[in-house]
Amino acid sequence: MGSVAWLLAGLPLLAVATLVTQARPARRRFRAPDSLPYSKRKFFFSGAERSLYQILRCISPDHSVFANVRLCDLTAASDDDKKQANHNRKNLDFLICDATLTPVIAIELRASSARGNRKLRDQFVDAALTAAAIPLVRIPLKRSYGLDEIRRLIFPHVHGLGPVC
């Protein structure tokens, strides 16, 4: 008789457990690629970025040119730095590294009018790069760039610039 009582008491618990597991949707470990909401961008760079990138590669053949580099990949914030999250969200437009992949100069494209938030962001980036001894050059945003203009801006930082392209 004791086992019948246990059986009667256990049946409702078993029923509830079954309902709970069936009511909860099964977790999918992944989605089929065709069901993801992503597509390839037509261009990686804007026209201005592409123009500058081509010039940078041309005038610094012994260096590597990287695009869209995170500030936190160049500089390390101390463990107690409360600005760490702020640090992780900043990107630089370009970074030129020497043959050993040591950063030589960071480059940013800037529109002529900087909003208040942008000025604070720029001050933060300036301070971080200054502390890390990585020079930063801000280049005014234009549709395209001249070779000599860019060469003059980065020459003090990158020695052994390549031939005229």
The helix fraction, in percent, is 25-40%
Radius of gyration: 28 Å
Portion in beta strands: 15-25%
Structural class: alpha+beta
> Unreliable segments (pLDDT under 50, ≥5 consecutive)?
none
Distance between the termini: 96 Å
Strand line-up in the sheet with most strands = 1-2-3-4
**How many strands in all?**
4
Mean pLDDT: 80
- Please trace the helix and strand order, writing H or E for each element: HHEHEEHEH
- Per DSSP, the total helix count is 5
The main β sheet shows up as: 4 strands, mixed
Please state the overall shape, judged from the principal axes of the Cα atoms: elongated
Describe this structure in words.
The model has no long low-confidence stretch (mean pLDDT 80). It contains 5 helices and 4 strands. Helix content is 39%, strand content 16%. It has a 4-stranded mixed beta sheet, with helices on both faces. By secondary structure, it is an alpha+beta fold. The chain has a domain at 47-154. The protein has helices at residues 2-23, 47-59, 84-88, 116-131, 147-154, and strands spanning 64-70, 91-97, 103-110, 136-140.
